[in-house]
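Box 3.1 A note on notation
Throughout this textbook, protein chains are presented in two layers. The first layer is the amino acid sequence; the second is a token string describing backbone geometry. Keep the layers aligned when reading.
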Amino acid sequence: MKFAGAIGMDRIFIGKHTDIAFSLLFTRISTIHYSFVYCLMEQNERKKILVSQNIGEITVEISRLVNPKCAMVLAHGAGAGMDHLFMKQLSSELNQFGIDTVRFNFAYMEKGKKRPDVPAVAHRTIQAVIEQTQSLYNGLPVILGGKSFGGRMSSQLMASTKIESIRALIFYGFPLHPAHKPGVERADHLRDVDIPMLFLQSTRDALAYQDLIRSVCASLSNATLVEIDGADHAFKVGKKDSIVHLAKKSFDYLISQHIV
């Protein structure tokens, strides 16, 4: 259960004129208490791992809880690495639901290059992080998640390689086509993915027109589509973001699939 959902229940009623004040006071105290305990529970570990001799090392950051429900390997998008604000905030919100996260840089991002890795290199990088995660979370469910490019590379890997430990795949904006160039060819491999897939898609995403992503998901028996109304590819709705909502929808989905 999300910690924030457990707070705000401590109320003391002492007369009709004081119940609101005491309710707010104890809600605030409860919030501080749970936040303090939660901070003590969380641990971040940042390190380098070797993908291969040819690809080299990449940076990995593991956000660990004392008693996690599952772990998510979380791949970044094409234009920004693991330390982008979106990735860090999403990781933090997933932690609130008891989900450990393993963020990492693709090799091109690690080397400071702008052009994304070719699929074979990206796939091997994800696989190396999965192997590292498996060694840390033996027996715990492992989820594969990705923002845009990271999700697409993750699904390509799962379409071509059977990895028993991966229980589900979550897309934080599947890039169905280049911006404003509609098409569905990028979804062809998805029919070969045999694990549950959650598509968290913005209704104003220039890289996945709403009618097309709906059609793709409807054609896949193991796909679930959740639309974020009014958001763009960055999950922004005006000046507001939807990251808390994304984390909650991810957790709800894992519950529905009996993974956590």
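The longest strand covers residues 43-52. The CA atoms of residues 148 and 174 lie 5 Å apart.
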